[in-house]
# Entry
Amino acid sequence: MGTKIKSADVQPKKSKVLPAWETYFYNTVHISVVAYILYCVYRASNKYDGLLNVYDFEPGWSFIDREKRLLNPEDYDGKSYYILMFTLALTHLRYTSFCLEHVEHVTGTSSLQQDTDTDKLYMEIETEIKDKQTDEMKFSLMDAFVYIFYFPLFFCGPIITYDEFSKQMNESTQKPLQEKQMISVAFFALRMIFWAFFNEFILHFFYFNALQHNLSVIEDMDLWTLSGIGYCQGQFFMIKYTVMFGIPSVVARTCGIEPPAGPKCIGHIYTYSDMWKYFDRGMYSFIKRYIYLPLGGSGANIIQKLLCSLGCFIFVYIWHGIEYYIFLWTLFNFIGISLETLGYWIDKQTAVCKFKDSMPGIYRRMQGLVVVPLFVMSVFTAFCFFGGSVIGYMYFQKFIVKGWLKSWSIVIVVVYCCMQSSMDIHDRQKMKKKRE
# Structure
């Protein structure tokens, strides 16, 4: 037993497996590549300025020496209808959560199945807590209205399931906010204001959205600039959702409600599972609680897990819109998740565990190589999601079809270094969380 505890303590410190110089090298490459592709996008924004659609721009801030700024994708004439549809969709999700929790309360069945690897004692404690929370939940018409039309989270989210909302609402009436919590909320609000202005600021210099709308410009670009556009799209999307979820969360937190946290920085996320888990955490909790677990996703059978994941992605496809580019994005995400699930299953096999313990450095490097093609595929799916199937196909043509050995080698080496750097960040975050 003592040996196992020692192994568990050492295991999270995977960054120590590699020599310090090697880790520094990976981090340097990662930072340098990101800086270079951002410069490429800035250079392309100035180079192709005259060729871009004028309707993609609007007058810029007067105190900045830039005549115009890129139009925020959300700033268009039909945005009021979009907000209406988005609000109705969120209302439907909250109503669904309320109804499913009510069904569970009435029938006594639980949609929250336990993982087969969970300790028996933990299962008993979790069940006891779950029963207590269910007893505290109320399901009157007024309770439904309070949850569904809770104003701070009504328009933009994030989604919070009714069981969690009811629990926090009961606790907020018993424990008013302390001074320390109010200070934390104030600093969080300042962070959201900063990121909101930062997002608007970068639109004066990086015209990534307008660049991808011009197919002739995209065809003329090199792979570095194209990669930079994809990176900018992802980062802008992440910061936008950080602010969109964060500002309503400020109001909710002053009322004692702690909504799901905003997106985790996607710059160092290297797995599909983490991207889905940490981007829209509220939606992830909703899908896991009401689709994945009820379908039997906690079972040990890998085929069962994959089928349950398929059910989740069918919902994701319908939720985002039944379009061809959404289908491609959903399909490749499902393939990525399936390959990761298979990889986790292989990783738990006895022979692999022995190899990992005996040669952790080699295992870590092999792990980085395995992740490279998955990450390249995720970039392709991101282009499909942000720019549509045509942009995704053009990226595929440039890298796969028209690419040659030298360009492939450079991309593989660069992505490998970035993956190792991301793994190092991930491991340090795990160590920090464990110390806390």
Observations:
- The longest helix spans residues 223-254.
- The longest strand covers residues 57-59.
- Confidence is low (pLDDT under 50) at residues 1-15, 113-126.
